[in-house]
Specification:
This protein is α+β, with helices and mostly antiparallel strands. The protein is built from 9 helices and 19 strands. β4 and β5 (about 95-100) form a beta hairpin. α1 (about 5-15) crosses α3 (about 100-120), α3 crosses α9 and α5 (about 205-220) runs antiparallel to α6. The longest helix has 21 residues, at about 100-120. The protein is elongated. The protein starts with 6 loop residues before the first helix and ends with a helix.
Length: about 375
């Protein structure tokens, strides 16, 4: 009889792979080896400098095809001397497994890979089980899950539902499921004035007060008061800089950056139009030139509570004893791409130490997470 896959050992094997974006580091090779032995058809879907893996058990085009999405790339370790362990050593100490990516999200990938392998071996489903794993979630996310979805569209690969295994629980295992995410965008402003001597301001046009007025106005504006599933939208200024070291010179230019997290009352297009309008009004009033460049990371979306969220919620409650909250809080995830393909929700571990020095995951939680994912598969195909 085949032994169940140990998700802790698999997590350790993945943590030992130094897969800092966009390096694959051997992580996808570890997963391919495991999955192919269990009968999954594995395809590398690499694009640009990014490595991705698509693994399917069951027929292409099945009426029911449940997918898991996750990533094996990790952020840099930072100051290695601040770590108490080797960041890629997968040290287990006091009930925790340490290492970069242990929480975000190699344990999640290991848990759903282990659950999927055990499931298809024990109770082969009438349908397909898919794992879509990227190496570009922590980077620009241009050639990761987007590349997998583009490839799926050309190959006729279809998911009917998907779960993203990102850490979702703030403090307690099982307390939160993500059913959507706010949109995210960044606007880069440049105000161009006229350089001059600080003692002769009438001969110059100082861009600094113009920028200060622009940022103050944008920051003070109430975009909304929240919606049914979302908190209020938020605009935060992250930097203002003129690059001016001289104390007696009025600078010619000033730059600023704002980050906007917006709910489903807005689109990035509408927010961009509002920002441009505010800049145009101030430029006409002051005579300064105001330029703006926008980068959109993702649109706001929500998967309304229904069959998929109820399925996941039931499995979480059964395995953890905790009734999860349906939430749209936090940053962005690759669910923002998957939502254009099929219904998607997110559930994973407690994420308190992700991206931190001495990132670590409670060993018991890895086993719990595998149990949740296994129950989801059994209930989905029941």
């Amino acid at each position: 009889m085949t032994q169940p896959v140990d998700p802790v050992s698999l997590t350790a094997d993945l943590v030992k792979c130094a897969s800092v974006t966009p390096e694959e580091g051997g992580a996808l090779a570890v997963l391919s080896s495991l999955l192919e032995r269990a009968g999954f058809e594995c395809t590398r879907v690499d694009r640009g400098a990014v490595s991705n893996l698509y693994a399917r058990w069951g027929p292409r085009g099945a009426n029911r095809s449940f997918g898991f999405n996750g990533h094996t790339d990790v952020v840099p370790v930072g100051d290695i001397d601040a770590w108490s362990v080797d960041p890629f050593g997968a040290v287990i100490r006091d009930g925790f497994l340490y290492g970069r990516g242990a929480t975000d999200m190699k344990s999640g990938v290991a848990a759903f890979a282990a659950a999927a392998v055990d499931f298809v071996r024990e109770t082969p489903p009438n349908g397909a089980v898919v794992l879509a794993i990227t190496g570009d979630e922590e980077g620009e996310a241009i050639d990761g899950t987007s590349a997998l979805l583009d490839w799926m569209n050309t190959q006729g690969e279809v998911l009917t539902d998907c779960l993203v295994g990102e850490p979702t629980c703030p403090e307690v295992m099982g307390e939160m499921i993500k059913i959507g995410r706010r949109g995210s965008m960044t606007a880069f402003f440049t105000v161009k004035g006229k350089q001059g001597h600080a003692a002769y301001p009438h001969r110059a046009l100082n861009p600094m007060p113009v920028m200060a007025r622009l940022i103050a106005g944008l920051s003070a504006y109430e975009m909304d008061q929240g919606t049914e599933h979302f908190d209020p939208s938020s605009l935060q200024c992250t930097t203002i800089d003129a690059g001016n070291a001289a104390t007696n010179v009025i600078p010619a230019e000033c730059r600023a950056t704002v980050n906007i997290r917006f709910n489903d009352a807005h689109t990035s297009e509408a927010v961009t139009a509002w920002l441009q309008s505010e800049a145009d009004v101030l430029a006409a009033e002051t005579g300064a030139v105001i330029e703006m460049r926008v980068r959109v990371s993702g649109e706001s979306f929500v998967t309304p509570p229904g069959a998929l969220s109820e399925l996941v919620s039931g499995a979480v409650q059964a395995e953890t004893g905790v009734t999860p909250q349906m939430s749209t809080t936090g940053g962005t995830s690759d669910a923002r791409f998957v939502k254009d393909h099929c219904p998607v929700v997110e559930f994973g571990l407690v994420g308190k130490t992700m991206h931190a020095v001495d990132e670590r995951v409670e060993v018991a939680q890895i086993h719990q997470l595998k149990a949740v994912y296994g129950r989801i598969l059994r209930d989905y195909f029941a």
